[in-house]
Write a structure and sequence with these properties.
Oligomer: single chain
Shape: flat
Distance between the termini: 56 Å
Number of helices: 4
Strand content: 25-35%
Structural class: alpha+beta
CATH class of the largest domain: Alpha Beta
CATH architecture of the largest domain: Roll
Radius of gyration: 21 Å
Strand order of the largest sheet: 12-11-10-9-13
Helix content: 10-25%
């Protein structure tokens, strides 16, 4: 007799990577897989799941109170990144590639091309799908006795805005009195909007603003160079 059983896994809502445990990556009970992932530092924040690379923790609360943690998702990764990974993977028949993130807001995507060359079609696909995002494309070659293997490296500079950054409102939004105001980003929301605390006529006020309406004038953390 053939029976059917449903198993559950967890995928990061930010980077789209799947949870992979040492023993099991899928369970028949949702609660069990969530508990297993939490043991590997996955977190559920506002109903969404995040891998250890995709959220930040308030260091002061973590240091002084083991039971009081403040977890904040990192800024969302634009959908065009995932579209580009899928498209390039189809062109070279090598899946979606590997992606890692650096502390200075770079995404590094690597594809194993084997013996495939970097064609004009692949480069054009990358450029068109990434659009205005600043990026570089390099091919690393490894020579063997009778053939050459290649790795495709795509480095993308992300226009991320972080909690604690000082920003200025540069476009009119739903708040008619916000243009030109400066404030501090207090939280980053999953839909790529930001809670910004400002002062209006000398009084503290709260604004929820889109990425397009603000620009960073001072980063909350020191930028580190890409190695």
């Amino acid at each position: 007799m053939i029976t059917e059983q449903i198993f559950y896994g967890i995928r990061c809502d930010r980077c789209h990577e799947d949870y992979e445990g040492d023993d099991y990556s899928y369970m028949s009970d949702k609660g069990e897989i969530e508990e297993m992932a939490e043991n590997y530092d996955w977190r559920e924040i506002d109903g969404r799941h995040y891998c250890p690379c995709c959220y930040e923790e308030d260091p002061l609360k973590a240091e002084y109170n083991d039971d009081d943690h403040d977890y904040t998702p990192k800024p969302p990764i634009p959908e065009c990144i995932f579209t580009m990974r899928r498209a390039v993977g189809l062109l070279i028949h090598q899946g979606d590639g590997e992606m890692r993130e650096t502390v200075d807001d770079h995404l590094h995507i690597r594809f194993y091309m084997n013996r495939n060359p970097l064609t004009d079609a692949i480069r054009l696909t990358i450029d068109q799908l990434l659009g205005d995002l600043h990026h570089t494309v390099e091919v690393e070659e490894e020579k063997h006795d009778n053939y050459v293997t290649r790795k495709l490296h795509i480095d993308v500079t992300m226009p991320f805005i972080h909690k604690g950054d000082r920003v200025r409102v540069v476009k009119h939004s739903d708040y008619m009195d916000s243009f030109g105001l400066e404030g501090i980003v207090k939280s980053v929301r999953p839909n790529d909007t930001f809670r910004v605390d400002v002062e209006v006529n000398g009084e503290p006020s709260r604004r929820y603003l889109s990425r397009e309406s603000i620009e960073v004038i001072k980063k909350a953390r020191e930028e580190k160079k890409w190695n």
